[in-house]
Design goal:
It comes from Clostridium amylolyticum. This is Diadenosine tetraphosphate (Ap4A) hydrolase. The protein has a single domain, classed as HIT-like (HIT family, subunit A), CATH 3.30.428.10. 34% of the residues lie in helices and 19% in strands. The protein starts with a strand and ends in an 8-residue tail after the last helix. Bound molecules: zinc ion (ZN).
């Protein structure tokens, strides 16, 4: 089943699995690839212009945590650690929400959603996530903020450079 995806830059695309489309290079994510390893792909969320909102997606098409191979598991936790470390060091992000669900239309991917001051007006924890993302999509899609997003991607890429050789 195909669905239409709206990218942060306004493009609409019809894809079967967005994660497959991005990790295979069919879709160039906004700002380009942040990092790529043997089993995973790191990129900015293509739909929501929030600096440092990173998606860690598997390259293999599957949905559930208990489908990870032992090699993927080891890479996964190390990558989460390294991305989080870079978010703090490069972007000064003090708290991150991690979101992942198995009944998604695109395959295995973890959202690392930074918490910024402005987000707290939408509350805390999981119920604030949707309003925060919609606010970003509807109100932060401007030139100044997109520059911050692209700068964050560039700086994270620089910080994670060479990570693929560490596994
Ligand atoms: Zn897929």
């Amino acid at each position: 089943m195909t669905r239409t995806i709206t990218l942060a830059d306004g493009r609409n695309l019809e894809v079967e699995c967005l994660s497959c489309a991005i990790t295979s290079g069919l879709i160039e994510p906004t700002g380009g690839v942040i990092a790529e390893t043997k089993y995973f792909h790191v990129h900015q969320d293509v739909a929501y212009p929030i600096p440092g909102l990173v998606i860690l997606a598997s390259k293999r098409h599957f949905y559930c945590m208990d489908e990870l191979t032992i090699e993927e598991r080891l890479e996964y936790i190390e990558l989460i650690y390294r991305i989080r470390e870079a978010q703090r060091k490069i972007l000064g992000i003090e708290k991150v929400y991690y979101f992942y669900n198995e009944d998604t239309t695109h395959h295995f991917h973890l959202w690392l959603v930074p918490r910024y001051e402005w987000m707290y007006e939408f509350g805390k924890s999981v119920e604030s996530l949707r309003p925060v993302l919609l606010h970003a999509r509807n109100n932060l899609n401007n030139k100044d903020n997109m520059k911050r997003v692209i700068d964050a991607i560039t700086n994270l890429r620089e910080e994670l450079r060479g990570i693929e050789t560490e596994f």
